[in-house]
Queue: 2 jobs
Job 1
Amino acid sequence: MEYFGLNEIIERALKEDIGHGDLTTKSLISEDMQAAGVFVAKSPGILAGIKVACEVFKYLEPEIKFEYFKTDGDTLAPGDIIARVTGKAATLLTGERVALNFLQRLSGIASKTRKMVEIIKYMPVELVDTRKTTPGLRVLEKYAVTVGGARNHRLGLYDGVMIKDNHIKAVGGIARAVSDVRQKVPHTIKIEVEVENLDQLQQALEARADIILLDNMDIEQMKQAVQITAGRALLEASGGINEETLLEVARTGVDFISSGAITHSAVSLDISFDLTETW
């Protein structure tokens, strides 16, 4: 699997960890020692990022052997062997922490996402992510969201229009904001407007916004927004969305539910890397 800028992400992570050299490994391990090690799941969850972990080791040693026993999207149980790595012992020891950091983080996001997707799997609504990601890791974290079964919102400021409250304050109103944007972006780009109340919802509908984000509205307001909109625009619920509130929000009839929690509040999955032999 290809990730935009993956080599740069891995290089930056390794430089951060290794600096001018792995003092412990250089002091203890001979250059010609070979070793094998395995990634082992220590807690249940959904795997994501195993090929990123592989690329960490391949960056350090292109000839390294990486055997996959699980692939991204697989369900993990404690004790499951995920992959086996064979190569120079120094490579395995130097690269293991960075590889684990990626693997644990992405698997944690995929696992949290899958839990939330399962809650609404029979509802006509889709869970999407946000831009609340770790700086520098967005492309990987959003990939993990898709492994978990949700959809990506815009990747950045450059691939979608989202007129937020501060944009509206800056230009003086929803109607003007939508009109100005419509004149400057390609007709193929959808325009989304964030609204905080039903009055703003009506303004966004009159401005012919394509998507309207209901920001921090309560359940009754969302239900009213769905009735008022009556299919004239897609509705996205956002704000305070978690596993406890998700189903009730889905029942309001909105089209999308965006949750920053699936990335910013995901707990890394417990995975270990253990040497199994050296020679």
Job 2
Amino acid sequence: MEVCRFAPSTTGPAHPGTLLAALLCWLDARSRGARLLLRLEDLDPERCRPEWGSAMQRDLAWLGLDWDEVTEQHAFGARHDAALDRLAEAGRLYPCSCSRARIREAGERARDGGWRYPGWCRERGLPPGGWRACREPLRVRLPEDRVELRDESGRDLSQHPAAELGDPVVRRRDGAMAYLLATVVDDGASGVTRVVRGHDLAASSATQVLLQRLLGLPQPVYRHHLLLLEERPGDGPNPKLAKFHGAIGIDELRCDYAAEALCGVLAQAAGLWSGSAPTIPGALLADFSWDRVTAEDRPLRVVREAGTARLALL
């Protein structure tokens, strides 16, 4: 049986982008008869809160989405540590003292829009006590391989991660496991065969494939989808468009939308529904096909009038 997962970070309330990603993942899995997991990614000690994980489950259920299993990522610390042990045994882990500011000053842009790590600490070894005795961030020394990869939609994800992005951090200075390693380990442990997510994460796919190879884990099929964008003030006459996050949260939306009405707006934004008439996820299943999902990002505007807040597609 195929296994899919939706893995939102619990760093704040759900927003329209979260809900669209959850809906598309749910439709993909249920249309295929796949097992569907909800994994709450709550490893960041500074930004994640238990109450946001509970709220995420409540809000996804309110929209009409269900799961075959719900897990919290912080419970998997033992297997994350075991992965670090394997990378250390293979001579792949090293401490890194380079600050984000210093890396940014090097001025090497990475393919994912961030800053490429130039590899200044790449030849350092672990301290005598191993990675557990290290108080600095840990990076993994990637193979010098080019990864040839396309996702299910045909998007070219091929990359030479070590050259184009640099070695990734796999454990932060505060001891928290980094997203890239944790998600690879947890997908492998759960038997995930399909990863459906927004295309903002597409640039990390090749690095994840290399980590899978280093750890002897299977490679899932990837599918990346559109994002919802919001208008933000710009320097010129036209506003900038950025990933929809923070303009309006689920609590405010629930004051002005029934679940069916909001589902209709999200389905319309994805190209799966004509007009914004109310609907439910189950009603979208019969005709669901990725061929019907628009490939282009969809801008939204939050319209506030007379004490209400509505979403308008642009």
